[in-house]
Amino acid sequence: MFKKILIANRGEIACRVAATARRMGVKTVAVYSDADAGAKHLAVCDEAVHIGGSAPKESYLQWQRIIGAAKATGAQAVHPGYGFLSENEEFAQACADAGLVFIGPPPSAIQAMGLKAESKQLMEKAGVPLVPGYHGADQDPALLQREADRIGYPVLIKASAGGGGKGMRAVESAAEFADALASCQREAINSFGDDAVLIEKYVQRPRHIEIQVFGDTQGNYVYLFERDCSVQRRHQKVLEEAPAPGMTEAMRQQMGNAAVAAARAVNYVGAGTVEFIVEQRADGSMNFFFMEMNTRLQVEHPVTEAITGQDLVEWQLRVASGEPLPLAQDQLRITGHAIEARICAENPDNNFLPATGALHVYGLPAHVAFERGTVRVDSGVRQGDAISPFYDSMVAKLIVHGDTREQALARLDEALAQTHIVGLATNVQFLRRVARTDSFAQAKLDTALIPREQAVLFKREDVGLSLAAASAVAQALLHERAAEGADPFSRRDGFHTHGVVQRRFEFEFGGEHVKAWLTYERGGSLHLAVGEGAAQVAGPLVFAPAGDAIDLQFAGQRTRAAVHAQGELDHVFTPQGATQILAIDLLAHSGEVAAEGGRLTAPMPGKVVSFAVKAGDKVAKGQALAVMEAMKMEHTIAAPTDGVVQELLYAPGDQVTEGAELLKLAAAATAAAA
Hints:
The chain is 26% helix and 34% strand. By secondary structure, it is α+β, with helices and mostly antiparallel strands. Strands 14-13-10-11-12-15-22-20 form an 8-stranded antiparallel beta sheet, sandwiched between helices. The chain has an 8-stranded antiparallel β-barrel with strand order 24-25-26-27-28-29-30-31. It has a 5-stranded parallel beta sheet with strand order 3-2-1-4-5.
């Protein structure tokens, strides 16, 4: 076994690898960029080496520096994690040339499976079923258009060197093909340095089921069963589970054998995942087709660890050091059910726009980390850390395990309810809603689950005004009481000898201005009225501190609420869900006026890729104006209203900060008057 390894990655996966290495007595070396100078993965490793600037191409993709760091620190092997250089055959070969063990497959296997078109041809020879498509080397746009027309719409354009949902576009008609191809190729060249694509038939009602495979240097292979990764947004996984619901033992064996055949065809060594697209037929049967092989450890590997009881990183280290596979196929068993939720910094209600900012509050349920448990959280950040625009938006992975799928679902909902993140937008509440949908709860799975259930997933208010306002008022009163001293005149309990004492609170909730009145009644009881007129909700307000939360009763509802203030904005977390309510300080805001319009700003930090308009152009509401790139994804900026472009303030290639004014847009009426 190795004495020291270098982890050529960052964040959660670097911490994950370091945890197993430490348990096995293997020393670890971290590498880091400027943006990660204070990151968690440095603290959990034994040594750390700075390798460059914040952008990946200046640091984590600089394999020469990484190899230099490994040599300088005496590391014997390099673990690439996932992403960055994990599927780069040039890096794997460079490690071997430098006398370092690459903890992954041989370069030839990475190369064979790294290009989707070539891998499809290889799998066809190996007898693995394929989806109808075009996987050729000729990339002439006219030819690609003809091939798409031949296959029949809808089709899927996929970057040949792609992964993680990047460089992928679904095309519904021939008229949309050219624009989709150009966008796909542009994203592919930016993410992978290769704009080659393949075209495939877009299978209807598909499920995404993948098989975890392992090979060793002695020619032994096993499959560690399957994972269902059908719940996706923008071709990126949201929830993953194992085993796949509805999987028969016969089909499991067929898919497992096909995956092993794929691995054997390229003399694979180490951990790999063979991904299949599964067609669900009208008669209830399923048919599977090879999609791609990821020649690395997958983000969702913890669900496989949960149901098998195996540490896959330990398997990686043992196989890379020359040991045989720890277990044979007939020794592997499935125990229970596991589900993984990817907690990401993003806004689901705004097309999953990535979010950046500091984790002012990072509250998690009781859990284990980087090991098998009922509730497991694998995370590469701590409270106070910042989520930057330079890297992937994932904050943490929440993994639950139960005896049955129903038990795992219940544990997932409870654990997500106890996850409190303040400081930036996340998908935590969205994940709860997805898990609660009829489609997911009843295992009616396919990759269109999220669009199909969108009515109950997006722009939902799960807490409500009355409960949010009551929670904010109770929290304010608790803060006031905490500030009271021994002097009875410092008390803020509304004591009075006669008459009625009433306080007014004002809030912003759901875009509306709301007033609330708190009445201090004789005997110390409180009465709260939220809103006005027929919509008013009123009743006794009873509350008491309960650790970091508040036991609350108001208007016939009883709940436990946790309130985290960020300036005037109160973040309210309850078992029903989470929401935000702005508690207005009227004195602080006196004299303020509304900001003037006419500006179109960047919704996140990133790079301007292109403008679709020029000064003087008339535009319609919803029309595409510009394309930005952030967190390795492209985002289209659309016109908020009809108008005329007055001035472009940046050029393609410029880096911009969040809130930066991109262009000046005059509203249609203003432009006409001018």
